[in-house]
Amino acid sequence: MRQKYTIIRDILNLIFNNCNITREDIKKKLNIASSYVYSIIPKLLKQKIIVESNDGISGSRRKKRFLSINPELGCVIGINIEHNYIEGGIYDFNINPVTKIHQNIILKEYTEKFIVDKLFKIISGLIKKSGKKKVYGIGIGNPGITKLSIRYNAHEVDIFDWRDFNLEKIIQERFKIPVVISGKNNLSALAEYWNLRHKGYKHLVYVNISVGVGMGSVINGEIFTGGKGDAGNIGHMIIVGADEGRLCVCGNRGCLGSMVSTDSIVSQIKELAEYGVFTKLGKENIDYDNIVRKFKEKDKLVADVINNVARYLSIGIFNIINTVSPEIVIIGGDIVKLGTEFEEQVKHNLDKLLWAGNKKFLPEVMFSNMVGGHSKGAGLYILKKIFNEDIENIINL
What is the CATH number of the domain that holds 115? Predict the structure, then answer.
């Protein structure tokens, strides 16, 4: 029975993680006997755990029968806790959004009890909206550090002060279903990987630049968290010396986050305007959205600051490429509002940093166009856990 369970789990995992897959593909990839594949697949189809479609033509001109997970099998909940809002959604078993929710809340202005109660209400509301579909699990992305062994929201000086607070356990005890928590950037990396998996990428880096800067990595199709669970904290990668670098919340100067975050951009432009440098913004209208608008209108002060941001960001990406060697680097967050011109500036600066020996290994660098990637990644993360560890809750062996 254990061997049968393992084979079924491996087959379902393979179907789940691949866009279009046939019985023959499964047999080859898992290196298992045809008898297993051709006896198990009909049972999974009968239980409506998987579905098949005739969407392709084989080399012999026969129709291929592709297998996929039945999206109607059930659903999961993905939640993302941000600095100033909480968003969430219900996702089917193909990670298609069924319904979404967004509530504004400034985390640092409230106690942990208030925020947990708010999460309870949001999750309860989503469960009600799922109707008759079973909710199999909850994934949560948070803006702090998530330790592998304890899973708590660690102290993050510029957001809130939760210490040794086991949010995962609290949510799981309340709703009696599996819960996983991970850093939001890891989850966005996973969601980006999921959207691009048909292109064959296995190693992906997602760089999030908003009020802070962070990174998520997917290596061999799985989130990479490092030995202690806090990999990707690139906002505190020092990229310039103390004489040029701005002061970071961590106490150091020249951290990537202090040089390229949207908060840093706003601060830099405010400081220069106060010194008397001319800008059409006006001292009272200096916020990030107005800065984006003036950048596209070629305001000289804004353009000069953004040009420096592009240079500093390219240094950070250059360091990431040389350390991680990803196949693709995706830049997301509010920074992408600056548009194509800024994207090209970053790529141009990055190209200047590369030497002849490693130019041919340069990964693709692109801006993300994904909306709601953190919560989608959270739903995907719990669903991957279910297929890896809790498959007996889905199938009738």
Answer: 3.30.420.40
